[in-house]
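Researcher: Watch the backbone:
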Amino acid sequence: MWRAAVRPLIHARDRVAATRAVAYFLMAGGSVVGTCALLVPGFAGGTAAGLLITEAVAGAMVAAGALCRLRPQRVPEAFWVLVPFIAVLLIGGLNLLTRDVSVSGHLYFLWPLLYAATFVRRDFMYLLLATASATDAAVTFAIQPDAKSATDIAALVSAYTVSTVVVSKLRGRSEALVARLEEQALTDPLTGVPNRRGFDIELTRALSDGGEHCLLIVDVDHFKTINDTWGHGTGDAVLVRVAAALRAAARPGDCPARLGGDEFAVLVAGDEERARAVAAEVRAAVARASDLPDGLPTLSIGLASTADRAGTDAEALLAAADRALYDAKMQGRNRVSSSRGERRVTTESRRKS
């Protein structure tokens, strides 16, 4: 339950990058703090206790960073969201302990803020921004309650806000660009349906989720003749029309796609009866097309089901549907053939021989 609540707060594609960022921030921050405490007079408050506490915190930061880098799977998921808040409290506590109101003490608050702007959800980022600003102000006024502190905090909070928002906006633009590029990489540019790569991803995902699925492999009959007789413009129009018919027949959970050339596919969430209904709807829609030459095109369709033992994984399902498509062509094209029927015919032929 806790994992389900935490997971959406951090961007899934950034999990690896977030792991590295936390590791580097912790190790770098711990090293800087530990070194300054040893070499800079008065950095740890000028007391033995202050030095001991500072070095202990620095050592814990380096150790935690090393754990994140070397054993990220052992770190609880909540850590990736809570770590910027923990960092803000540690920075505030160390600044208070060392009575540090210098620029260097304030700048450490930018580290967790930049992490949040890059890796966590935007509303969570604003919560951290408010927490960091309030913590910095409280520590600063506790050490030096004067007008200069008020001016410094106003300038610092403005800098925190601008830096965080700008990085967050850039992240949003970058994610939108990546999403667009991913969509283009997985979509057929002519028809607008998923291409072979996109279909393979959806097929694997659907089969891993379980439930009965059927695969239709759709082939345009005599497509080369259509291109040679009517031209490539008409050939493209045929492909677009077939893709439109597939999209119209598909229901939520189905996935139409162009596998390449004049070959299409539809992954149907349901049994063979529903898959046959989809196939019939597609063939009827293409036959009714008024923007294509009379009689163009007809479709041969191969059907395979996960209920069939020959189609329990992606490779087997595709092979079974391909065999059924070949059977439809051998029977004269312009028809639907099932892998079950294809195997039955093959078995009967073997018995006769």
